Amino acid sequence: MNDRYVSFYYEPDNDIGQIVIEPEKTALLLVDLQRVFISRPMPENPTTEEKKHLERWAPFYDVIERTVVP
């Protein structure tokens, strides 16, 4: 596992230090918030880096918009 981020969700986040996961002390919590916090970001003039980041998230938003939340 990369010591900078555990998911590409955190990849562009520069203010978090090294993330250490201790499996014996870690639980996975899934919280279903429905559509309240799910909105595809649509920046007006994205940089090349922002476009790449948005492209990585496209499959996630596709599933949310077409399958998970009608």
List the helices and strands and how they pair.
Layout: H1 48-68
Could you characterize what this model shows?
The chain has 70 residues and is mainly α. It has a domain at 28-68. 30% of the residues lie in helices and 0% in strands. It is built from one helix and no strands. The mean pLDDT is 79.
Labels describing this entry:
70 residues
Uncertain stretches: none
The tally of helices reads 1
Query: Could you give the order of the helices and strands?
Result: H
How much strand? under 5%
Quick structural overview:
It contains 1 helix and no strands. By secondary structure, the chain is mainly α.
